[in-house]
Design brief:
Elements: H1 3-13, E1 17-18, H2 31-42, H3 45-52, H4 61-75, E2 86-89, H5 92-103, E3 111-116, H6 122-131, E4 135-139, H7 147-163, E5 183-187, H8 201-214, E6 216-221, E7 228-230, H9 248-254, E8 270-275, E9 287-290, H10 293-300, H11 303-308, H12 313-324, H13 327-354, E10 369-371, E11 374-378, H14 385-396, E12 398-399, E13 401-402, E14 420-424, H15 433-449, H16 453-457, H17 461-472
Parallel strand pairs: 1-12, 3-4, 3-5, 5-6, 6-8
Antiparallel strand pairs: 2-9, 7-10, 8-9, 11-14, 13-14
Helix pairs in contact: 1-14, 2-12, 4-12, 5-6, 7-8, 13-15, 14-15, 14-17
The structure holds pyridoxal-5'-phosphate (PLP).
């Protein structure tokens, strides 16, 4: 029997560990809370009849109100957030599509600028809105986004548009509730999926300035902000009830006269996509968008919301009830933050013990507060992520996501990730996290020890694409 066949048999004998799947562990789903909230709504006709009918375009007013007050408590902006800045959505993914429907024209809107590595499931949403071939990668640096690069490239894109006479929207008529932006910038500024980085305040401000200079709408998926904890294992607190930084939308609201300053159209330059997927359950398909009142209203005028009312209306009323009682906020602070913190610590301490000695690196290692679902690892340059992922599956029954999955299609010159991996600590049971890292260490050690280690690491693209296909089955 060959050595490889032996390894395959050993791998199959081991229980699967999946570090690719970006879902919450089922033990963290607050089913009891949703049951109680749905019961409250459905057993009271004052709540249940409007909940079972078409909702208002901007969504359940009670949920808008409760979200606004929760966000005000958490982000502590200089002025409270009022409900006119909030529209209820079907979650961050669904709402990205709505934003593109109302605020872009696939011919006039020049490019989609994506901070890379990038949440890969956003690519198709942009493609579906006519932006295939117009996606551009902006590299990240230690502060979160390379602003000089963005400014330079966006300027070139504008020069090209001027030469081509691309001066007005071609496919979308002018509408009083919307506008067509020249550029879209897409980012996950806090506890990013996938890079795990948090963009500094300085970069958030610079990003808003670039957007204002070039008529861009920045769309941020702020879906992990509430899942935060101190990075130090010695910290006395496991939970934090105030955000680490203002969101990019908060920066836009107040910077240099703010998003509604005199002489501007009042739509602002940022839309913040929030979601209950990570703080309650993804099956709810409920979220919200925050922006200026004009922008929030504009999103609600998407054709599908005009026809059917705000999406996810019934579940939105359940979430409104869970927020009104304060139970969802307590779930985040008392259950999610400590659980994710503990999971993160298990994984990071296993990484420190088993992987750092092999030359693996973690980005932004010295932050006081960390969060989200994912850790990004950079492998020693002799190892390719695709090959590590493939061998991890074959030899250890371990699934990890290789860095090249998060490259912006068609634009890898300045942002490619052949030597990286993304690991999720949210899905697997906590007691499997350290074991998964030990299995990964064993794969890396084998590759480093193999006489053909470096050659194997550089092996043919056939092997790499096989690895890519294998992991895709687990999205
Ligand atoms: C950055 C980012 N955006 C959006 C989503 C999906 O959000 P929703 O479930 O609200 O559509 C995810 C989930 O993994 C994500 O990581």
């Amino acid at each position: 029997m060959s050595a490889n066949a032996n390894k395959g048999d050993t791998a199959r004998a081991k229980p699967l560990i999946n570090f690719l799947q970006g879902w919450p562990n089922t033990s963290l789903l607050p089913t009891h809370l949703v049951r109680k909230a749905s019961n409250n709504v459905l057993s009271n006709s004052i709540l249940s009849f409007p909940a079972m009918l078409y909702g208002p375009d901007q969504g359940d007013p009670r949920l808008r109100e409760n979200i606004a007050s929760w966000l005000s408590d958490f982000y502590k902006p200089p002025k409270p957030i009022l409900l006119d800045r909030i529209t209820i959505t079907g979650g961050a993914s669904q709402n990205l599509a709505c934003i593109l429907q109302v605020f872009t024209d696939p011919l006039f809107t020049r490019n989609i600028w994506m901070v890379a590595p990038c949440y890969m499931l956003a690519f198709r949403i942009f493609d579906d809105s006519g932006f295939h071939g117009k996606l551009r990668a902006i590299p990240e640096d230690d502060e979160g986004v390379d602003i000089d690069f963005l400014r330079r490239e966006i300027r070139k894109s504008e020069e090209k548009a001027t030469q081509e006479g691309n001066n007005e929207p071609k496919l979308k008529p002018a509408r009083p509730w919307g506008k067509i932006y020249r550029h879209i910038i897409y980012a996950v500024p806090t506890f990013s999926n996938p890079s795990f980085k948090t963009m500094t305040l300085r970069r958030r401000e610079d990003l808003v300035r670039v957007a204002r200079d070039f008529d861009a709408l920045i769309v941020t998926d702020d879906v992990y902000d509430f899942l935060q904890w101190p990075s130090s294992p010695n910290s006395q607190t496991s939970g934090l009830d105030t955000a680490v930084l203002p969101r990019v939308v908060d920066v836009d609201r107040f910077l240099d006269g703010g998003s509604e300053r005199e002489g501007v159209d009042g739509f602002g330059n940022v839309a913040s996509n929030g979601s209950f997927s990570k703080i309650c359950g993804p099956g709810l398909r409920t979220g919200w968008v925050e922006g200026t009142p004009k922008l929030a209203y504009g999103v609600s005028q998407t054709g599908s919301s005009r026809s059917g009312g705000a999406p996810s209306h019934l579940t939105a009323t359940f979430v409104a009830d869970a927020l009104a009682s304060g139970e969802l906020q307590r779930h985040v602070l008392d259950t999610l933050q400590p659980s994710y913190s503990s999971r993160y610590r298990s994984m990071i301490s296993a990484i420190e013990t088993n992987l750092l000695p092999l030359g693996v690196k973690i980005p932004q290692p010295d932050r006081d507060v960390v969060g989200g679902y994912f850790i990004w690892l950079t492998l020693p340059s002799s190892l390719r992520g695709a090959v590590v992922a493939q061998r991890a599956k074959e030899e250890e029954n371990l699934i990890v996501a290789q860095g090249d999955l998060f490259e912006v299609p068609g634009d890898t010159d300045h942002a490619s990730f052949p030597h990286d991996l993304r690991l999720c600590f949210a899905w697997e049971d906590e007691d499997k996290l350290a074991e998964g890292i030990q299995r990964l260490a064993s794969v890396i050690r084998n590759m480093q020890n193999d006489s053909g280690g470096v050659d194997a690491a550089m092996q043919s693209t056939t092997g790499e694409s096989r690895g890519k296909d294998a992991v895709r089955n687990f999205w």
